[in-house]
Amino acid sequence: MPRNIRYGNFRGRDNRGGRYQGGDRRYDAGKQRYDHHDNRMERDDYNDRNRNDRNMTDVKRRVSFNPSNGNRGKGRITKGLIRAHINDDDEAMAGDTYDGVLRTFVNNRKNGIRRRSGSPIPRGGQTGNMNRPRLVQSNTTWYEVKIPYGHKYDKEFILLAIQQAIKPNVFIPLYWRVIESAALFYVEDFKVAELIQKANRTIETPDNRRLILLVRNSQPNSLVNDQLKERMKQAMQKRYNPVTKALNLEKFHADPDLSDILCALARPQIILAAVDIISEHIPELEALNLNDNKLYMLDHLRSMANKIPNLKVLYLAKNKIPYINTLDSLKALKLQELNLEDNPLRQRYEDQTLYVSEVRKRFPKVIKLDNIDLPPPISFDIPEDDQKQPPAKASFLANPASTDLVRQFLEQYYALFDSDNRQPLLEAYHEHALFSLTVNTYHQNNQQKLGAYVSANRNIKHKTDLDTRCRFLKQNRLQVVSYLSELPPTRHDVHSFAVDLTFFTPQMLLLTVTGVFKERKPAGQNEPMRSFHRTMVIVPAGGGFCIRNDMLHINNTLSVQDEKCFKGPRPAVPTPPGATAAAVVPANVAGPAVLPTTAPDDNTKLQMVQALAVTTGMNLEWSRRCLQEMNWDYEQAEFAFRELQKQNQVPQEAFITQ
């Protein structure tokens, strides 16, 4: 066959003109073309050669770790061989090829790693930390450090060598023990566990081998029995201070007397055993320190309130408590001091006030939180013998000496407000006065019933843009009184007023008035009843006072207000003939107690007469007579009229308009 022929599989016709499959084409350099021919005989020879090569390969593989069907079981790595290798105390810890190969096979099997069939095993076995298990950091994680064949070496040598390998970091080995041929201990710091894992096969032993350090996430086993409880009781005894009645269990699992056994209070069964020991031997305990014990969930501690009833101080700092509601299981404790520093729940509150409020919802008597003194709690859990609540009052006056001033101001103001002409109120407002009106339109029926006031509603919850807010704000006395004159005519029930004078100085008064009024309608029509809340800022002006800021809120009345207010009927009942004006104010009628006042001037008298006429329905002449008989005391005059009205002693001519 010429050397310049190349082959390529294709499908076509042979030289004899017939179709064939699997034929080759060859390139003839002399003819400068491909020549098609049937080379099935040549291909068969080539396949025979390949088959012989594969047989030789199988022979070689039968000598290696991969057995053939004819030599099954010989030279295979079985579970028994692996177990014998691990338990062989005379084998070296590392170094020879067979040991490294075997360990690589075991680790690959354990981690689910499979090599391609027939691929060579890397020399030297496992290369240190390539297949080390991944450590996971969580709230309650412990880390197990296992040293295979660690029984051959002294404990002090192993711990000192590890400390040198991870310096300057320091670790505390917990619960050291030797199980069969392996040494084992636990650490509780994630960073330290990672450094120990990286130190695997970097520490040289006295017999010129490398120390294997296997680190994984694992918690030590715990078994609460009488022996453990006795050891716990002995450790707690030295941590108790009988003078202060305080028990310090901070980082209890790291106590030197408990280094060989697990005594982690993060385990529910262990901390419950500690609570039982306290309840039995230290029932008078008042302060308990549980700092730095990896506490996460506290639901199992609900019994503390019954078993440690005198507990007043509780430290839970440097734990893993995630949420504030985790403390709900302890809210039956009557704590006065609580420490929650360095817990995840503390990072959820940037506002200190909100944090204190949430803690006091569960522990209302706490006066010290996170080493910070808190203001005394507001509590009503006080015996009646110690302190009695003051009697409730309808009104509050910051300065009792201002009673007469407030009464006169309100009488004059509402006498003009309830009159047919509100223009005289110009004198009651400051030149630069401000007025705003709000209406409760939360319910649709309110919006329908209060339609006369909705058009000027300046509720800033709904009026969000600045221009609208400014437009609905009445500024200067002319705008204020002009708008007040547009409101429906009213008739206020002064007996429903609750007056609070919360601030009083010679320069300013802050006055709040709450009460009920009716919208006056023609005779025979129903007069709707409304409630109001009014806040006024009053300042001196000339020889008197005027309103600088006025905020009025109007709402529908409650059923209780409907039952108590405006009990007297509208004046339309005829009186017996022959009654005189003197009968309006008989001498034996006593009105509500009020402070005496000086005689008003003629202008004030006129306003009082007009107001009484509007309130009672009497004409101006009879209203004047009624006020004169009561020495111009408006409240006394109105009270006397209502009493006589109930007795049908008001003459009919008192209601005739002249």
Keywords:
single chain, 658 residues, alpha/beta, 7-stranded mixed β-sheet, 21 strands, elongated, disordered N terminus
Task: Describe the protein.
This protein has 658 residues and is an alpha/beta fold. It is 30% helix and 20% strand. It has helices spanning 40-63, 79-86, 97-110, 155-166, 190-198, 226-238, 268-281, 304-307, 352-362, 403-417, 444-449, 451-454, 466-471, 476-486, 559-564, 602-616, 620-629, 634-646, and strands at residues 8-13, 19-28, 33-37, 143-147, 174-179, 182-187, 214-217, 240-241, 246-248, 287-289, 313-315, 337-339, 368-369, 372-373, 396-397, 429-439, 474-475, 490-505, 508-519, 529-541, 544-556. It has a seven-stranded mixed beta sheet. It has a seven-stranded mixed beta sheet with strand order 15-18-19-20-21-16-17. The chain has a four-stranded antiparallel beta sheet with strand order 5-6-4-7, with helices on one face. A hairpin with a 2-residue loop joins strand 20 (529-541) and strand 21. Helix 10 packs across helix 16 (602-616) and helix 16 crosses helix 17. It is elongated, with a radius of gyration of 49 Å. It starts with 7 loop residues before the first strand and ends in a 12-residue tail after the last helix.
